[in-house]
Design brief:
single chain, alpha/beta, Rossmann fold, five-stranded parallel β-sheet, 5 helices
Length: 141
């Protein structure tokens, strides 16, 4: 069973419910996962935290996230393969990946389906700029 992405709420002065983006956060470090969840909430989106690749695939099977943010230093899976599997399962999803700068790896991640590459160490301002280039990320009011 699959649940469609974009829960809906009615905004003041609007008859039409506005979609709330669902953001899958794939990060194995609980402290960073919590920080990213708070960040996503502050942007008006719904975070769906996953502790690793296997967990992320279960979430993608159950929900249809609008955006996926993957830390590619996961200990339980190959990051490029995870990007490929998520793109295959959710073809329209936007994927941003966080990784240490390396042009060869970045080319591989893009070839597998990553839409944005965010350099580590993670800087929220750089993350914000990268996510703003994705259509599924809500723009500031």
């Amino acid at each position: 069973m699959s649940i469609a992405s974009g829960a809906r709420v009615t905004t003041p002065g609007s008859e039409e419910p506005a979609p709330i983006p669902l953001v899958l956060l794939v990060e194995d470090r609980p402290d960073i996962r919590s920080l990213l969840s708070e960040y996503v909430l502050s942007r008006g989106s719904v975070p769906m935290p996953a502790a690793g690749g296997a967990h992320a695939e279960v979430v993608c099977q159950t929900f249809a996230p609008d955006l996926v943010l993957i830390d590619l230093s996961l200990t339980d899976t190959d990051g490029a393969a995870l990007v490929r599997r998520i793109k295959a399962r959710c073809p329209g999803v936007s994927i941003a990946v966080c990784t240490w700068p390396d042009p060869e790896r970045e080319a591989r991640y893009r070839a597998e389906g990553a839409d944005e590459i965010v350099a580590k160490p993670l800087d929220l301002a750089l993350l914000e700029r990268a996510l703003n280039r994705l259509a599924s990320w809500p723009r500031p009011a």
